[in-house]
Amino acid sequence: MTPPIEYVCETGSTNADLLSRLRAGEALDEGHWLVADRQTAGRGRQGRAWLDGPGNFMGSTVVRLSDRDPPASSLSFVAALAVYETVLPGLADPFALMLKWPNDVLLEGAKFCGLLLEAERGHVVIGIGVNLAAAPQVTDRAVRALSQSGPAPSRDAFAQALARQFATELQRWRDYGSETILRRWKAAAHPPGTRLRVHDADGQPVQGTYDGLGDDGALRLRLADGTTHIMHAGDVMLEDK
After folding, report:
1. Cβ-count burial of 45 within 10 angstroms (0-12 exposed, 13-18 middle, 19+ buried)?
2. Measured CA distances, 39 to 16, 49, 121, 166, 182 (Å)
3. Which of 216, 31, 38 is nearest to 124 (CA)?
4. CA distances from 41 to 58, 108, 137 (A)
5. Other residues' Cβ atoms within 10 Å of the Cβ of residue 202
6. CB atoms within 10 A of CB 81
7. DSSP state of 134
8. Could you read off the pLDDT of 9-32 as tens digits, one per residue?
9. How far apart are CA 183 and CA 148, in angstroms?
């Protein structure tokens, strides 16, 4: 069964809309999705703009938190796995898809999906943007569209499949905890020893190799001197070998 999906032709940001409705006291059901044909003020992590495009997916959903839930911070891994599992069956080469900390999904090494999580009054609003039909021109990183790797699904078909998969992953998160989610995420991510460059919250670069995740989902970065640097937030780039 597909969760309810509300479609709008244009809005500033689907995340901002759901956050505003929650602040106003609207009782949004968990699993409610808001999907836009076009966003004029889409947002990504660290204040970046998320550029839209005809045929691409831009939508947000609501998770209602309870005291029995695993840590809310692990929902970023839930969302990344939902996108990964939705896209994977349609790819000729399943190894073209890879997860990158903290919440990126890469296609043939290039970014084609963005995630943004924001908390509000006991809820988390999760925004997801996926380049289905076209990728924008971005100067500081490689980007790609799903259509460049084979036939891409229609926006509406993708929205329905993602809504169902997200509901499945959310239930797994609640049933089995964040440890199982993190284990599955690591199996789909870049392998240990991958060279990374991480810009921390202050924008300072730190270079090292990927050494897995902590129990809380923090990045373990092995430095050249053999020590391990733990990072809870940052912008990660894969380094060329």
Report:
1. middle
2. 11, 10, 24, 22, 31
3. 31
4. 11, 28, 17
5. 6
6. 23
7. -
8. 999 999 999 999 999 999 999 999
9. 30
